[in-house]
Backbone:
């Protein structure tokens, strides 16, 4: 395991913690797409089924369990505990537009035609587009709280660090997973404009921002 992988995992976990703390402290899930969080929970569920079949390392197992727990706690807080604060009207992205093509692609393009491998491939493809309902929600409302921009920033940073991880692994191990790399690059592209405006427009310090990156 290299430093890029570790930093990527930390950035990913930090993004989730930021979101959970935001909901817990404000007792509100306003501005947060519940549909994106459902997709992320589905991503972790289908990807980490090997918890029951394969042991890689204690670190790997612990991180998988943490991500699964955090994903379902987030969904619970949005749809149960603080459901009255959930903006369902603006969280209107149609999930079938993502789930149908991703499912089809997972059956067509995978490493081997086995249930676990297809589900793992499905999770990789789905993760690359799971943030779209959140970005769509921001574009629809025209604004977002600072804490949501931090969440998106660290999610994007996680993907960027994982690209560095793949480059390092190819350089040192000659390892290359085309499905993971292509999907990761596609996902990172969604964050490119956001990264630029986050830094240059001072969104990390402002309370709200307009969704110029989606115009």
Residues:
């Amino acid at each position: 395991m290299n430093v890029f992988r570790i930093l990527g995992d930390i950035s990913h976990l930090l993004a989730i913690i930021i979101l959970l703390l935001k909901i817990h402290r404000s007792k509100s899930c306003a501005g947060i797409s519940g549909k994106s969080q459902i997709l992320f929970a589905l991503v972790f569920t289908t990807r980490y089924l090997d918890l029951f079949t394969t042991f890689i390392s204690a670190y790997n197992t612990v991180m998988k369990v943490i991500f699964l727990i955090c994903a379902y706690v987030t969904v619970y807080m949005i749809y149960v505990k603080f459901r009255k604060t959930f903006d369902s009207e603006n969280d209107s992205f149609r999930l079938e537009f993502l789930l149908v093509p991703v499912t089809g692609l997972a059956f067509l393009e995978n490493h081997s035609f086995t249930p676990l491998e297809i589900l793992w491939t499905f999770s990789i493809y789905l993760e690359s587009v799971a943030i779209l309902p959140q970005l769509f929600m921001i574009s629809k409302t025209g604004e977002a709280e600072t804490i949501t921009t931090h969440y998106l920033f660290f999610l994007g940073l996680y993907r960027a660090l994982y690209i560095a991880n793949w480059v390092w692994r190819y350089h040192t191990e000659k390892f290359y997973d085309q499905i993971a790399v292509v999907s990761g690059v596609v996902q990172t592209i969604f964050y490119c404009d956001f990264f630029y405006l986050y830094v240059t427009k001072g969104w990390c310090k402002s309370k709200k921002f307009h969704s110029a990156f989606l115009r």
Residues 3-200 form one domain. Residues 36 and 133 are 5 Å apart (CA to CA). Residues 206-215 have pLDDT under 50 and may be disordered.
